């Protein structure tokens, strides 16, 4: 284990600084260009010992709002003024797209709110502490009093929970495997959703007394909320599982997305910052409405990774004369159940459609979905991107898929996949959006038209 010194050459898209020493590259978090860093490499992890700012770079640097910044493994950019965060995150990919499509303007959507925007956080419960995992240390928990990127109402719930946890002492001790509650997930929708991940067989009188007092405090402070418990084994570190039970409130969370009202299961995925995604989709729909070769035709809409049906329902409502049918596919059964409900609730003129069909399907494995001619395909995969089976399926259905709308939370991976598709499709629309300020994450949306 050797001590190393180096100067930060530049900030990379992951918001970490690049240092080169004797042809080796090292990535250092929480730094700025030209910082002098003393660090050690410990078990392939880089641990900064000292960061010396030669100048404050006042046009770039800002004082982090969060007292846990640099300790917790969440935010990566609070020390960088937002306009520079956005440049660092997107510049490399932006330049690649500009080389590839020199005549195509890249649109962008930036957030109106830089803090207190996130509608879901999963906190680790460890004995009497509640927080987030320490950066580069899965076993250490940073006790969090307030998270600066989750909503203010969620922070209010967190405070109530932490106070009662100390009183009842039923947090899970990962050293002794004693205790009951392992995680708390707080979701901010049109009401607050609170999910406790517990060891089911440990439920006892103390736990029920805790629940009663927790409910009492929540009712004093919140207008509308739902409380759930879900179940975990002693060894599992998965929060918010599909095996859950309603303690109080609704079976589902009620979210708004533009003019849609959507039901989402407690464990189901929904955009963590839907306001930015709403604007991205509105801009994309406006672009499509000006494409004569789209609005003068009719399509069968196929939505892969459809979740609770947000995008397929949204685009049908914008183009009811252009969409003849809706098919959606997703791995989670409860999401498909609510996708059907959401379609029924939000599409009043369903008789105009040939059919609406949502099905459970594992898109990571080889599959075959029958397609009609004139298909409009929507893709919104997880961060891992499109599986080989999805790409192979697209390539085997080139004659039928005329348009592809690809929304990605991993734009670098999306760019690589575009390299495969660009032989067969023209890229006609590129939109960068940032639902995740203070972090290294962002989203991109591309629209492809068959050559």
For the record, what CATH class of the largest domain applies? Alpha Beta
Radius of gyration: 24 Å
Please bin the fraction of helical residues: 25-40%
Biggest sheet descriptor: 8 strands, mixed
Based on helices, strands and strand pairing, what is the structural class?
Answer: alpha/beta
Alpha carbon gap, first and last residue: 55 Å
SS summary, helix count: 9
Which strand order do you get reading across the main beta sheet?
Answer: 7-22-23-21-20-17-18-19
Average pLDDT number: 94
Uncertain stretches of 5 or more adjacent residues: none
Oligomer: single chain
Strand content: 25-35%
Task: Describe the structure using short key phrases.
alpha/beta; OB fold (Dihydrolipoamide Acetyltransferase, E2P); 3 domains; seven-stranded mixed beta sheet; Rossmann fold; 25% helix; eight-stranded mixed beta sheet; 451 residues
